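ok trying this again, last paste got cut off
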Amino acid sequence: MESTISRYKSPMLIALVLLFSMLAYFFFHPSYQKSLEAKLHYTMGDYQKAYTLSSEAYALEPYNRMANSIMVQSKYALRYVNYNTQAQKYLDVISGYAKQEKIMLAEQMRIKMMCDIMIDKHQKMQATILIDKDLVKQSLRYYEQFVDLHEKLIKTL
């Protein structure tokens, strides 16, 4: 019976040593360290920092699937952040026009062009399940505002 236990002891020890060395490689390799840090920044909503770190990690180790995944998801999330930022800027400009007593035809055309740009941009974006739901909902609200504004402008022109 003792020979059976010792027979299984060495492969088990070898497996544990291999597992430990793989974990050590994962935790101490700079690529995986950066990808773990990128994952942390992504979950906190700092998509630019996550994209930068995951790009660096992917450049160090092209087989790092976690870095590649975070890099792609950060890229998509940054599109939503940029869309929302630009939408707010456009709405601020449009509200400035709305405060005027009369909106000139040239300004109406600018507003229509802004609406066209934002509607087209939103239709080209891709939502994934990993992107923050609030970010996607906010961009959808902006999109709906631009669609409504576009329809109202078409009726007046």
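PB: full thing came through this time. The chain has six helices and no strands.
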